[in-house]
Amino acid sequence: MMSTVLAMAAKDLRLLVRDRGGLFFTLAFPFLVAIFFGSIFSGGSGEPRQLQILVVDEDGSEGSSLFVESLDRSEALSVELSSRVEAVEQVRRGKSVAYVALLPGFGASLSHPFAGSPPRAELGVDPARGAEAGILQGLLTQFAAERLQDAFGDPSGLQENARSGLQAIELSGATGPQAEGLKRLLTEVDRFATTQDTADGQEPRSGGQGGGFKLEPIRIEKASIIVAKNGPPNAYAISFPQGILWGILGCTAAFGLSLVSERTSGTLVRLQSAPIGRGQILLGKALACFFACSVVSVALVIFGTLAFGLAPSSWGKVAVAIACAAMAFSGIMMFLATLGKTERAVSGVAWASLLIMAMLGGGMIPLFVMPGWMQTLSNISPVKWSILAMEGALWRGFGWDEMLLPCVVLLLVGSVGLLLGTKLFRWPNA
Amino acid sequence: MIRLAGLTKKFGERFAVRSLDLDVPRGEVFGLLGPNGAGKTTTLSLMMGLLEPDAGVVDIAESGPPTDVGVRRKMGLAPQALALYQELTGRENLRFFGRIQGLSGTQLDERVDHGLEFVGLTPRANDLVAQYSGGMQRRLNLAAAILHEPQVLLLDEPTVGVDPQSRNHIFDNIEALKAQGRTIVYSTHYMEEAERLCDRVGILDQGELLALGGVNELIEAHGGLGVLTITTEAGEVRSIETENPVIALADWNRSELETVRSFEMERPGLERVFLNLTGRTLRDT
Q1: What whole-number distance in Å separates Cα of residue A274 and Cα of residue B96?
Q2: CB A116 within 8 A of CB A168
Q3: Does the ipTM exceed 0.85?
Q4: Is B120 helix (H, G, I), strand (E, B) or coil?
Q5: Which residues sit opposite B226 in a β-bridge?
Q6: Which residue has the higher pLDDT, B133 or A140?
Q7: SS3 helix, strand, coil % of chain B, rounded to 5?
Q8: Taking CB atoms and an 8 Å limit, are A273 and B72 in contact across chains?
Q9: Selection from B116, B120, B117, B197 nearest residue B163 by Cα
């Protein structure tokens, strides 16, 4: 039984190697995809889109609430309140772009820009979304600065702020050019607020040469646990899983077509006349597909590691992710191969299906670039789960418990595909 | 060795094989003769167990139906469509087909070497099949069918589209297999092949077995008279049906009515048998 299956698999792999066109799509094309997209993303591009972020309000003050409201009103952000633990986990799993934690004292510091330390916020960004970290940091600074502007627009509040600031400097006993400069500025601000002199465009003065000071609207601290270790080493860490998927898709299409070729070339009749069952024939095909998918995937990971700085967090998990993805697409191959009786028919159906899976699942464009509803829709694509498993193993630092969901989904898809393929398979004379 | 009883197969409303009864004894070369679409390939597929009959039974070597794995090991098939992998070499093809027949190790090596030698392809064993001529591919197709030394060999139009050299090689192969005592069912629409190779012939048309017997037996029963065709000096062509064309020619000369420029004698053959049985020639259909 097993020797027949192995003979089938060996024969199919040999045929694959001899088919230069098929070999290009199963081996060369995935490398091109990985390198091409990696190069694009490492260059940084794209317009800012609405970023989905979680906000952790650890201050719980009126000021921090107002700040959250201002974030929520922004067209650039989609905001959801969360606990710190949940927020960190969501970002680490790639389910949210980032979290912003407003640290205790945030509201008070925001309300008193001239006294004490600036408002502090912690920012944790999905490692895969490094390009957006800067955008998000800029947006936070902008909103904090707007709050400052509001403070300047209210004469009584401004006067109170200026006087409390002066008082704080006096109490602290600070000296030096910066302290002196700030004192002069706050005195001017106090006078300005008192005389209701609110001419448009007038900027607060810094108080002479060399005596300026820096007004820091918000102090952003990056969450080290995420940024430090779990981040992708570079954009190739995102593009290589995509490349691997293209390799797997190429194998899937090639082996699906090879089953139909057996039918049209007449070799299936000879196989049918041999003392073997269709299960052995189909299992042999699936095994060859699984092996080819695995070889292409491993080759890409090794190439990415050696040439493009991939640093798999766990080789064991990489192997499991590859095996599960290969299993899923071997099953899909078996199913697709039964959907037509000619190479042309199966090729059309197979590539149409696989391209849709790739489009939805992040095989063409990374999922995070897609709108929210499409990211939800991507759950139906095995490509999404394959990429998630591989990213989890390559750089997201998934634990085994986190690998479980994508791997189980992939194994289920593979099993269903194998069962359907076996059930729908028909001998040539049937 | 092969027993078909009441074998019937329909595709839709059309009978591909209708109530076929046939016994092929061990060591016989049996020819299934008929035009394209007569039901030859369907009959072979039923014998091989590739198709399920709508009625009737197939029994091989008194061991049961051909769908039984043990029975199938005793059978070999050379399909009409070349069942070979074009991107594998001749040797790789045979090694693969040998393995799925259960051969392995030195036995596999020996059988592959023997198969290549048998069909005269040893010098081209390591070339891709895609580089073979049509005749060479046909010979390899035959080699693939006999790797596991089957007792029963089903050959479906094994000489279609081959050059005369390969055709003669295949004839020699079949005669050698016959000498080894194998039971062979050979489908063809070439009468001369059936006449040369087959011990008995079944004439099949539209799924029905019209006649069955030895070649001479069939000719005697259904071939009719021989034909003497004379072309006179004046250019006229005369055909005379006769049991003895030599005597008819002598009679013609004695009459001295017209001088003979040339003559042709045609002995009745299977073509005539088919014509007389169906009203059509094999090549008309």
Answers
A1: 11
A2: yes
A3: no
A4: coil
A5: B242
A6: B133
A7: 40, 30, 35
A8: yes
A9: B120
Each residue of B230-250: b (16+ CB within 10 Å) or e? bebeeeeeeebebeebeebbe
List residues of chain A with CB under 8 Å from any CB of chain B.
Answer: 3-4, 7-8, 10-11, 14-15, 18-19, 265-267, 269-276, 427-429
Phi first, then psi: give them for residue A413, nearest 5 degrees.
Answer: -60, -45
Q: Across chain B, what does the average pLDDT equal? A: 88
DSSP string, A320-357: HHHHHHHHHHHHHHHHHTTS-SSHHHHHHHHHHHHHHH
- Rounded CA separation A398/A405 (Å): 11
Q: How many residues does chain B have?
A: 285
From residue A290, give the alpha-carbon distance in Å to each of A225, A281, A304, A329, A343: 37, 14, 21, 8, 21
Please name the residues in contact with A95: beta carbons below 8 A apart, sequence gap of 6 or more. Answer: none
How many Cβ atoms are within 10 Å of A239's Cβ, its own excluded? 24
Whether residue A50 is predicted with pLDDT greater than 80 in this model: the reply is no
pLDDT higher than 70, residue B95? yes
Among chain B residues, the shortest Cα distance to A274 is held by B101
What is the tens place of the pLDDT at every residue in B24-68?
Answer: 999 999 999 888 888 999 999 999 999 999 999 999 988 889 988
Q: How far apart (Å, rounded) are the C-alpha atoms in residues A108 and A113?
A: 9
The C-alpha atoms of residue B223 and residue B242 are separated, in whole angstroms, by 12
Residues with Cβ within 8 Å of residue B64, at least 6 apart in sequence: B70, B71
End-to-end CA distance of chain B: 32
| B:135-164 residues touching chain A, CB 8 A cutoff | 144
- Residues of chain B found within 8 Å of residue A272, distances taken between Cβ atoms: 50
Q: B73 in helix, strand or coil?
A: coil
- Rounded CA-CA distance A120/A118 in Å is 6
Yes or no: say if A184 and A208 are a contact pair by the CB < 8 Å rule: yes
- Chain B residue numbers with beta carbons less than 8 Å from the beta carbon of A266 are 79, 81-83
Which residues in chain A are contacts of B185 at CB distance < 8 A? none
Cβ-nearest to B83 among A10, A266, A275? A266
Q: What is the SS3 assignment for B191?
A: helix
Q: A11, B81: Cβ pair inside 8 Å? A: no
Chain-chain contact of B101 with A273 (C-beta, under 8 angstroms): no
Q: Read off φ and ψ for residue B29, nearest 5 degrees.
A: -100, 115
User: Distance (Å, rounded) from C-alpha A40 to C-alpha A106?
Assistant: 38
Nearest-angstrom CA–CA distance, B24 and B155: 14
Strand A120-125, strand A98-102: pairing: antiparallel
Helix A400-424, helix A278-308: angle, nearest 10: 140
pLDDT band at A40 (very low <50, low <70, confident <90, very high): low
Residue of B79, B88, B101 lying closest to A275 (CB–CB)? B101
Helices marked H in chain B: 40-48, 69-72, 90-100, 105-118, 134-146, 164-179, 191-197, 215-222, 245-255, 270-278
- Please give the DSSP secondary-structure letter assigned to residue B203: E
Candidates A3, A19, A275; nearest CB to B72 = A275
The DSSP line for A26-49 is IIIHHHHHHHHHHHHHHH------
Structure tokens that stand for B85 in this block: 């992998």
- CA-to-CA dists, residue B83 to A76, A276, B25, B137, angstroms: 63, 16, 28, 9
DSSP helix/strand/coil, A190: helix
**Structural domains for chain A:** 2-41+235-424 (no CATH), 51-229 (3.40.1710.10)
